[in-house]
Amino acid sequence: MTLQIESGDANRFTGFCMDTTIVRNEAILFAQVGDELVALLTDRGVYVSLDGVGSCIWELLEKPITISSLCEHLVARYEVASEICYQETVAFLADLEEKRMITRAMEAGARR
To answer: What does pTM read for this prediction?
Structure first.
């Protein structure tokens, strides 16, 4: 199932915008298992499985990246319209943020 969000709604509900910089949580353990990437959330004892696109996003989040740059990479790699890419990427990132798998780069720097 794909979550469809109007771009204005995505900003209102998540606070993400094209220049938001995000990075993955360094404490998350993960490994490639077949065609999926599996991440272990040790603080909750659960795992999350990411498919091909999710794995690609996870790899791109190794270093701080703006949502704009992230979407540019995805549009270039996959045949997807920019607006759809933005909507679905923001929905996915909101889910990762809720699971504390990513953080906004400014917040990550403030914790150091």
So the answer is: 0.80
